Amino acid sequence: MALLPILRFPDPRLKKVALPVAKVDDSIRKLVADMAETMYEAPGIGLAATQVDVHKRVVVIDVSEDKSALQAFINPMLSRCEGSQTGEEGCLSVPGIYDKVERAESVVVTYLDLEGKEQTLAADGLLAVCLQHELDHLNGTVFVDHLSLLKQTRIKNKLAKQARVTA
Ligand code: GNR
Ligand code: NI
Q1: What's the CA-to-centroid distance between 119 and ligand 1, angstroms?
Q2: pLDDT surpassing 90 at residue 12
């Protein structure tokens, strides 16, 4: 396993649209293992391959309290988005920034598992939020893209200032 570097907003590579995985093979299973290690180390509750500069439709999520329920989603597709919920979101690619985003309350996701088998899962609450946040990443969207342009500018300035201090 290996820790992967996480891209930071506003890196233009976060805007790339990820390509579908043609075949779930050992290279994809290795990517999932490395992404899981990177997510747990961060720590975060989800990670999209886009964030580690791999532009394939692969997501890992673990919303459990004790980090015991890793879920991998390959080529995830959302259907049946219902209701709405608004909660504070953060992102490993936008460190230290948290703001409210409106999402669907419940979703149904169809995806391939680590054996390449098609699966369908109904999700609500935090798992539904996380799935929508990660699917956004695969489509080149970061949660700050849902905020006002004024907030986006402030966030860019704040992160640039942070980068200068830590440099
Ligand atoms: O760790 C994360 N926490 C989080 C909290 C609220 C809404 C979404 C998230 S996802 C985030 C990890 C991340 O950046 N995934 O892309
Ligand atoms: Ni994120």
Answers
A1: 23
A2: yes
